[in-house]
């Protein structure tokens, strides 16, 4: 064949790796695209609490909370400066010193544990779910279907320690 180099009468063609390199580059590009696609899908479908969890503090809860549930219409919760006050209707009310507050993400809300003490240093715990939306919503772990709403952002009851 004219135009091709020959050595001792044998056709010599130069071996090339171009088709193999192109295939490897395409496969690497496909893998990179697949990885990026999986990452984007994961970020879109990842649970909200993993990407936007904010621990709850006493200042987040500050104010007076009441419920529309008829059984508890004369009750309230009040959070203020390291204190929690419970309104028990005809039984009066009582305030307690908050010892600790812990929170953890649970689906689209936050589970809050508050440890508080009475004057005799007896320790109690209150656990509830908290949602920031609409000014705040509290759902006690032990009261299914009862929701507490912030009705005043400032404490209105004078603490009476028990």
Describe the secondary structure blueprint for this structure.
Elements: E1 6-7, E2 10-11, H1 18-45, H2 48-52, H3 58-61, E3 63-67, E4 75-80, E5 83-88, E6 93-106, E7 109-117, E8 123-131, E9 137-140, E10 147-152
Antiparallel strand pairs: 1-2, 3-4, 3-10, 4-5, 5-6, 6-7, 7-8, 8-9, 9-10
Walk me through the structure.
- By secondary structure, the chain is an alpha+beta fold.
- It folds into 2 domains: 41 residues; 101 residues, Lipocalin (Beta Barrel), CATH 2.40.128.
- 23% of the residues lie in helices and 39% in strands.
- It is built from 3 helices and 10 strands.
- The strands form 2 sheets. An 8-stranded antiparallel β-barrel has the order 3-4-5-6-7-8-9-10. The chain has a two-stranded antiparallel ribbon with strand order 1-2.
- Strand 7 and strand 8 form a beta hairpin.
- The longest helix is centred in the N-terminal third of the chain and has 28 residues.
- It is elongated, with a radius of gyration of 33 Å.
- The N and C termini lie far apart (107 Å).
Summarize the biggest pleated sheet: 8 strands, antiparallel, barrel
User: Percentage of helical residues?
Assistant: 10-25%
Kindly report the average pLDDT value: 85
Tally of alpha and pi helices: 3
> What's the level 1 CATH class of the largest domain?
Mainly Beta
Give the number of DSSP strands: 10
Q: What is the third-level CATH name, the topology of the largest domain?
A: Lipocalin
Uncertain residue ranges: none
Task: Give the N-terminus to C-terminus distance in angstroms.
Answer: 107 Å
User: What share of residues are in beta strands?
Assistant: 35-45%
Radius of gyration, CA atoms, in whole angstroms: 33 Å
Content-based structural category: alpha+beta
The largest beta-sheet arranges its strands as 3-4-5-6-7-8-9-10
User: Under the CATH scheme, which architecture of the largest domain would be assigned?
Assistant: Beta Barrel
H/E order of the elements?
EEHHHEEEEEEEE
Principal-axis shape: elongated
- Compute the number of structural domains: 2
* Oligomeric state of the chains present here: single chain
């Amino acid at each position: 064949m004219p135009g091709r180099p020959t050595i001792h009468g044998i056709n010599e063609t130069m071996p090339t790796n171009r088709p193999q390199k192109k295939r490897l580059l395409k496969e690497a590009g496909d893998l990179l695209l697949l990885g990026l696609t999986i990452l984007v899908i994961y970020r879109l479908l990842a649970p909200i609490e993993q990407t936007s969890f904010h621990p709850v503090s006493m200042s987040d809860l500050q104010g007076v909370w009441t419920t529309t549930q008829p059984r508890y219409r004369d009750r309230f919760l009040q959070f203020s400066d390291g204190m929690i006050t419970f309104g028990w209707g005809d039984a009066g009310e009582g305030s307690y010193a908050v010892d600790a507050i812990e929170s953890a993400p649970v689906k689209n809300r936050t589970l809050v544990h508050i440890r508080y003490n009475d004057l005799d240093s007896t320790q109690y715990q209150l656990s509830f779910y908290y949602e920031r939306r609409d000014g705040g919503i509290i759902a006690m772990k032990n009261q299914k279907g009862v929701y507490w709403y912030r009705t005043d952002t400032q404490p209105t009851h004078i603490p009476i320690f028990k």
